Amino acid sequence: MTRKIVVLNPKGGSGKTTVATNLAAYYASAGFGTVLVDYDPQASSSRWLRKRAAHLPQIHAIAAFEKNPRVTRSFLMRLPTGAERVVVDTPAAIAAQDMPELVRDADAVLVPVLPSDIDIHAASKCIADLLLVAKIKRREHRIGVIANRARRNTLALQTLLRFLGTLEIPIVTTLRDSHNYLRAAEHGHGVHEMKTYVAREDVATWQPLLDWLEKRFADGAPAAAAGLEAAG
């Protein structure tokens, strides 16, 4: 069954591409038919894929930001046979009115947030738009926040935790501020594909997120036939 995960935060620099590429790499390495959809005109996810070594598990690419008058939108957005996990990397500065199309049929919406006052404020508006404009209902439990590049037991992280507690939106994991993500971005792989002794601590921080996603997939209604064309 195809499951669609959208990584979204209109504020630039929040770590959307880091989350999207590492999530896609995990699913590919775990044996799932994996698709990485890149809506960002900066094409960061697409560049990461081009760096990916041929011996690593394949990830199918969809460059959703491309405009080609010779190709229909539905043809560009079609999923390959056997697609099981579709990870969508969204652009920065996305308007609230565009969110409903991007999150349509999404089984989960992940919002990466840096623990700073500016980023917390931006995340507040993003989550409000997802609830009020994109019409995601709280009881569906489809929205999860990722505290990115966070240092534990800091005032900034505690502020973020308190803020999200007021919204009843869970922080599904806290990712470390680690050089391993820079190395992974440079070489087209994910932290799960690095040597165990190098990335053990980072891999451990992903487990709560992966567990939350699998619970979402088990508890939630199936996505509607992975309707990516609707997001075009």
Q: In terms of topology, how is this protein built?
A:
Layout: E1 3-7, H1 16-29, E2 34-38, H2 44-51, E3 60-63, H3 73-76, E4 85-89, H4 99-103, E5 108-113, H5 117-132, E6 143-147, H6 155-167, E7 171-174, H7 179-187, H8 196-219
Protein described:
This protein has 232 residues and is of the alpha/beta class. It has a single domain (3-220), classed as Rossmann fold (3-Layer(aba) Sandwich), CATH 3.40.50.300. Helices cover 40% and strands 15% of the residues. The chain has eight helices and seven strands; from the N terminus they run βαβαβαβαβαβαβαα. The chain has helices at residues 16-29, 44-51, 73-76, 99-103, 117-132, 155-167, 179-187, 196-219, and strands at residues 3-7, 34-38, 60-63, 85-89, 108-113, 143-147, 171-174. Strand 6 (143-147), helix 6 and strand 7 (171-174) form a beta-alpha-beta unit. Helix 1 packs parallel to helix 2.
Top keywords for this entry?
globular; alpha/beta; 40% helix; single chain; 232 residues; 8 helices; 7 strands
Outline:
40% of the residues lie in helices and 15% in strands. It is of the alpha/beta class and 232 residues long.
**Would you tell me the structural class of the helices and strands?**
alpha/beta
By CATH reckoning, the class would read Alpha Beta
Return the average pLDDT rounded to an integer: 87
CATH architecture: 3-Layer(aba) Sandwich
Question: Which superfamily, in CATH terms, is the homologous superfamily?
Answer: P-loop containing nucleotide triphosphate hydrolases
Helix content: 40-55%
Global Rg: 17 Å
Output the CATH topology. Rossmann fold
Number of helices: 8
